[in-house]
Amino acid sequence: MIHAEAEPAYRWVIVAVGALMTCVGIGAMFSLAVYLQPMSAETGWSRAGISSAMTLDFLMLGLASFGWGAVNDRFGPRPVVMTGALLLGLALVLASRATSLAEFQLEYGLLVGVAAGAFFVPMITAAATWFETQRSLAVSLVSAGMGVAPMTISPFASWLIQTYDWRTAMMTVGIGAWALLIPAALLVRRPPVRTGGAAAGSSAATGASLSVGQALRSPQFIVLALTYFACCAAHSGPIFHMVSYAIGCGIPALTAVSIYSVEGLAGLGGRVLFGVLGDRLGAKPVLIAGLMAQSLAIVTYLAVSRLGEFYAMSVVFGTIYGGIMPLYAVLAREYFGPRIMGTVFGAATMVSCLGMASGPLAGGWVFDTFNGYAWLYIGSCAIGLGAAAIALAFPPLPARASERLQPA
């Protein structure tokens, strides 16, 4: 056990390890776009078939987040992230040797998604549990690893493909995941046990006496999950189709990809900004304001057509959607306490993944039907405003030890 006086220093080690794990885990999963063209050319597999592995990844990431969150609550984060580290490297190595499309879909679409789910919820939960102050900032910094992934893992994989081939690249990333994540997993620890009246009061104030079943039926969870779902459904379509929209406006393809990179970079700053604001003003009001701003940013894309305008909007949009995402974990911690946070936040993440999976599909249908993306941005704006309206239904956060969450 770590002594209480050592906590202020070591809790930042947890943040750094969490950021590394989310970067490598999520980055390895999202790098499939880099492998798509060379894989299709070398194997003859259809791009739709290869891309379907990403759809499976999203679904498995959601389901695994719920499962890993429950395991995390019972056994702690270290065995969860260690298992994820071993599984991620194995999945990538096996996928690099796949001889059929079905085999690849199983190994990359199922195993990688399950492995990636072992990092996000457990490490977000660990950070939220270690921090009593600066919690929003800590959770945001762990989440920032996801924003770093497109600027690290994907370019590294692309360089390996150009230097060798896609199979060597995927296997190398898998071995690299082992080399980075297994030692990092050994650094993950539970926070020191807090004793005394303050700890007891905090536990009571956050509704720690609820069972998992009561928590998942509570108004707090229902509002949290629905808001998370609508938020992700609102921004996933515009994010996924932004490059295609820019190309349709006459922006060269390579330049359009750079707009996407700027958007991801802005998300890093947004996580820090909204984390600081969440600590000072409260996670709930910052989330509601952010959801409304996200909706306005989405619909503003209808007026964007030039490169400079795209860069400006990508900075605004990336800052907002990157900043609001970690706040859901903070609210889960504040409403439900540390004892069952992994299960509760994992369940909310599972629901949010359905929203993330719906956006790209809806955007494709809109373009095929109307030969443009206007209705995608209008519809996404409306869904985003709906998310803000749902968030207004959040009950007041518990502030006194005598307060309890009530099941629905």
- Uncertain runs with pLDDT below 50, 5 residues or more? 1-6, 196-206, 400-406
In helices, the fraction of residues equals over 70%
According to DSSP, the number of beta strands is 0
Helices, by number, come to 16
Structure commentary:
The protein has 408 residues and is mostly helical. Helices cover 81% and strands 0% of the residues. It contains 16 helices and no strands. It has helices at 7-30, 32-43, 47-75, 77-96, 101-130, 135-163, 166-185, 197-205, 212-217, 219-248, 253-281, 283-300, 307-324, 327-336, 341-370, 374-391. Helix 1 (7-30) runs antiparallel to helix 7 (166-185) and helix 3 (47-75) runs antiparallel to helix 4. It is globular and about 55 Å long. Residues 1-6, 196-206 and 400-406 have low confidence and may be disordered.
Give a short summary of the structure.
This protein has 16 helices and no strands.
Task: Set down the secondary structure blueprint.
Blueprint: H1 7-30, H2 32-43, H3 47-75, H4 77-96, H5 101-130, H6 135-163, H7 166-185, H8 197-205, H9 212-217, H10 219-248, H11 253-281, H12 283-300, H13 307-324, H14 327-336, H15 341-370, H16 374-391
